[in-house]
Amino acid sequence: MSILATTWQTGRGVSLESERSSDRTFIEELFALHHAEIYAYILRMVRDADVAADFAQDTFIKAYRAQDSLEDRAKARAWLYQIAHRIVLDEMRRRRIIRFLPWTGESHGAAPSAEHLAMEMRLSGPLARALARMPDRQRAALLLAEVHDLSGLELAQALGISHVAARALLTRARESLRQALADEKRREKDREAAIDAAYSEQARANDPRRHDDRKPGAGR
Amino acid sequence: MSPETKRYSLVGEPAHAQARMLAADSVDAELAPRDAEWLAGHLGSCPDCAAVAEEYRALHLELRGLSTPEPPRDLWARTSAALDGAEAPRGRRSRGSARVAAATRPGRRPLISTAVAVGIVVVAAVASLIVQSPIASTGPGSARSGTVAIGTGSAGQPSGGPQAPLAVMNGTTYWIASTDGVYVIRGAAAQCPPTDASCTVATGTGQALGSISSDSTVSAAIAPDASRAAVWTSDKVAIMPLAAQSQTVSLDQLTPQPTIAATPTPQLPTPSPAGPTASATEAAPASAEEPSPSLIPTTAPSATPAASSAPTESPSPTSSSAPTESPSPTESPAPTAPSGPTAAASPSPTAVASPSASASGVASAVAILSGYEIVGRDPQFSPDGSLVAFSARPVDHSTGPDVFIWRSGTEQAQPVTSHHADLFAGWFGQEILISEITADLGPATATAGATASAAAMGTVGASATAGATATASAGAAASGGPGTVGSTSYVYDPGTGTALEIARPMLLPVVDPTGRYVVYWSGTVEFDPVSGLWQPGLGNLYFDSWSNLTLVPASLGQVATPTETATAAASTTPAPQATATVAPTEAPSPSPGATEEPTAGPSPAPTGEPGAPPATQNPPAGPSLPQLLPVAVTPGTVHDWLVSWDATGRNVAVWVADPASASVGGLDLFSIDRAVGLVETNEPLLAADRVMASIAFDRGHLVYTSAVDGKTYLQTIPSLPPSSALTAAPTFAGGGPNFTRAPAEPQVTDRPGN
Q: What CA–CA distance (Å, rounded) separates B749 from B34?
């Protein structure tokens, strides 16, 4: 069956009519409906396109293996997010990919990875970096609620916590992001000021009149 | 969702906090009328809160306006293929095709796999230890017949997947369980019925030894005596005691002493705000001329705050540690300034002056580093448990990683490198192995991002010329300049602050506890344009004779912070270290294929260039040193790996990540034929698929966790190597520094979390 041959609806309050379809078909249908948003969520969390693709794949594999645990297929979307969320957090806890930034003599404050992601998702540089600085669970809560439009109950299910705890986490996440973004914007302004100053200094150094100005008696 | 109404009587700061919370809630939810009314009133009289509320709304709009990135076009194809293979748990086992191919290679013993036992039911979130015999075993499936299968992961929540234990030490299993942001470290001894081949940690057992709450995911490493743990999140590292009745520690609220930043390297090019072109020509030669690590002697003060230091967490990073302000290299720090690194001027690591230096442990949790994220290997305790070493970088990625060490009794981790390109490789006795990426990127150096990435593919090690040709030339074509990236590894003594450079280029070497052998990675290092990070590219793992490698004293004076204290530290470098260089020509080759080339290492490259990496294109007819370990699906595809030696140095376990995974891979257990000093690659004691990235040895067993069933297995290791058991290990004239400095008693230096 084509993965696009879905017979059920999606969105908030998913109503599935394919409960009697085969397990494989069910997963294929879920993939067709949700793979883009699941991939996007994972990418926003791990900030690595290759890893995000791997984890998106893993999400559907795990869903396939664990679909018996899905009691209500109307909650399949949040359930998928829960699987993806656990994969992401689990990986972040034990990530062993050996990665490092060499010191090249200049600041990596605007990490290429963040910038690349920012361009791809229309994130401003400061916002991308601010998101990256947030605690994992707060970032997850914020992304799921704000970007992926999960309802309060869906958010709680995806995070595997109570509704009240999810709301509290979301509130903390907003405050964390606000502070981190303010900090990032302040740093960016400082960097721009430093660059402007450097260019100004360079321009003065290259200006032949500057040497004239330095002649004795030139008033400097 | 609506807050309680008691807040309406709030005044002062609580009212502001309440208003901000309500403002955050109101972003995407409708407040109760009374809440909304109170909030409106407060915001009308509080411009600051009104500004915050506006920021919340602006962030809300900005986040909701984000576009959705396109998933890769082949995502369905690969997922579909994986689904085909994923049907195994429902009735049959399926291995990755690549590993099957490996298993059927001529001369290779059929795999003794971690085949899942059919019909086993996961019943609880506790550990299951399954003892396996070596080769003679018919496989774990039969051994586990009737065993209650238990997973350490989130059983009952299959989506959580399997989870490897933190450690298995002296028969006790330690794992971490998380619920709603609370992470509990548990430990329990396995019950091993004499009539059954399985050891089980019964359901519901396990003593809670430590509890941490955090909004970030928490990881942990257990000390050898299990008295404490190093715990870390995405931006903080802490040490906490492990006790039966421990209170929950809020890791997010732990505030460390002024955060120590990796000291900027004075000799490196100063960041140039004028733009990348200005520094392009400066960075490359600087890197090329400074192959030694920027090791900071323990006496060197850490001075400058990193850009990532959160102001709120680093009240005065420079207040007590400015290099020029260091009064004396031997002066003890003031009690209020435990970060004073000058205290470590004494060569003895135990002489670190600290108000609590005499404490053998930590009475309560203490954050030892903040604003940094762990990079590479997990933090690891020294064999005696007195030190913790790890590599970390600022969370804002303003620099690359440096290696840090925390000493028992102190309250801060101290950086021991400052080149921002250093990785902790592991402990070797009381010394640590460090690998440093030495970039020689030519003009591309300063152009971070895609331009640099296109050019910067090189081989690990300056000697990797032959192997680098292809990749470097490709980069040259793209950028106009060849780029080579080298990795130099060092043996660093935290007690003296001295270092020895390993002459052979290698990445993340792991030395056996007896100091005879080493396994390391060699290959290309690539720049990942997506993540903007460097990572191993094409490469392989090699087995080599550790004692036959040349160690060269690293010049601390060149790399240390040029301060009075640094000079003093350099002068304290023990003379024997400088003369301890192994002289390969004096050492008989442990292998028929070993070379006598004095400095280039055991095996000259086919090109004849000294120090060339192991030949991968034209391997010799017979095994020789360095010996390529057949652990990769295809040659050159080892991009993520773990190596663990047993205490005797007779067996080595190698885990290599599957190509499409970062946490699951294949595991091989090899024995060392000491008669010839080579690995028995044709007779692996174990070759298992789908193994989690956590391996260790404990009491004669190899401990690993299957990703298929989530169970932890204990593979029994033969008490004697399969061959040449009575053959004395080769001895080496002069031995070399590492022989004399190896632990008297073999200790397992590699544990889960390695």
A: 62
State yes or no: pLDDT of B147 exceeds 50. Answer: no
Listed in sequence order, the DSSP H helices in chain A are: 23-46, 49-65, 76-94, 112-121, 125-133, 136-142, 152-159, 163-206, 208-213
> What are φ and ψ of residue B660, in 5° steps?
-105, 15
- Residue A71: partners with Cβ closer than 8 Å, 6 or more residues away: none
B58 vs B179, residue with greater confidence: B58
- ipTM of the complex, rounded to two decimals: 0.72
* C-alpha distance from A216 to closest chain B C-alpha (Å): 29
Chain B: closest CA distance from residue A209 (Å)? 21
> Does A183 reach chain B within 8 Å, measured CB to CB?
yes
> B268 CA to chain A: closest CA distance, Å?
6
Is-contact B733 B629, C-beta < 8 A?
A: no
* Token code pair at residue B638: 């080892």
Partner residue facing A146 (CB), from B63, B272, B276: B63
pLDDT of B17 strictly over 80: yes
**B604 φ, ψ to 5°?**
-65, 150
Residue B527 has pLDDT above 60, yes or no: yes
Which of B27, B62, B397 is most worth mutating to test chain A (most A CB atoms within 10 A of its CB)?
B397
Instruction: Provide the 3-class DSSP secondary structure of residue B286.
Output: helix
> Do A167 and B398 lie within an 8 Å CB cutoff?
no
Overall average pLDDT of the B403-413 stretch: 92
The residues, any chain, with a CB within 8 Å of residue B729's CB and separated by 6 or more, are B516, B674
CA B602, distance to chain mean position in Å, is 28
Strands B172-179 and B182-189, sheet pairing: antiparallel
Residue among B395, B396, B434, B507 with most chain A CBs within 10 A, to mutate: B396
Rg, C-alpha atoms of chain B? 27
Residue pair B251/A137 in contact by the 8 Å Cβ criterion: no
Q: In the 3-class helix/strand/coil scheme, how is B497-562 assigned residue by residue?
A: CEEEEECCCCEEEEECCCCCEEEEEEEEEEEECCCCEEEEEEEEEEEEEHHHCCEEECCHHHHCCC
Q: Which of B176-190, B314-328, B492-506 is the most confident on average?
A: B492-506
Task: Answer whether B125's CB lies under 8 Å from B152's CB.
Answer: yes
Q: What is residue B256's predicted lDDT score, i.e. its pLDDT?
A: 63
**Top mean-pLDDT range of B42-56, B207-221, B457-471:** B42-56
| pLDDT tens readout for residues A113-169 | 445 555 555 566 788 888 888 888 899 999 999 889 898 889 999 998 888 889 889
